[in-house]
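Anyone up for a design puzzle?
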């Protein structure tokens, strides 16, 4: 009588383990540090929010006419400097909370940094108030998040 084989041989099991090990060695580095990519995406999202808020504040300023000192967005007064939001106002207009980001305003510059970044200065977006006759500037750095 013929015996039928049931299950796998030791060689087959070892080969499967070796193949899984090789796949894991190549896949693991790709998934090891997704936190940095997430922080970079968060800063890019904050930058987009600030740019949109700046355009909305500018539109409200132009619609109000006669050079208003402030505009009101969703019940919040936004101070105007040269037709655009000031440094503190852009954070309010963009609804950027210090609970979610590390924020600072000084000398007409608003800085938004990703909380938990390896190097805060290299994972941030900065907003510089508009100069006379100009527009505000945005600078984003996500090189080390």
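Challenge accepted. My sequence:
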């Amino acid at each position: 009588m013929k015996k039928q084989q049931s299950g796998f041989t030791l060689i087959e099991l070892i080969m499967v383990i070796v193949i899984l090990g090789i796949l894991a060695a190549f896949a693991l580095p790709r998934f090891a540090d997704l936190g940095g990519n997430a922080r970079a995406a968060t800063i890019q999202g904050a930058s987009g929010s600030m740019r949109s808020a700046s355009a909305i504040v500018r539109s409200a300023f132009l619609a109000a006419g006669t050079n208003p000192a402030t505009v009101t967005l969703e019940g919040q007064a936004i101070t105007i400097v040269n037709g655009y939001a000031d440094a503190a106002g852009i954070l309010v207009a963009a609804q950027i909370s210090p609970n979610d980001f590390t924020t600072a305003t000084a000398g007409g510059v608003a800085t938004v940094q990703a909380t938990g970044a390896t190097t805060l200065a290299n994972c941030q977006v900065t907003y510089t108030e508009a100069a006379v006759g100009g527009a505000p500037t945005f600078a984003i750095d996500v090189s080390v998040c």
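A detail worth pointing out: The radius of gyration is 26 Å.
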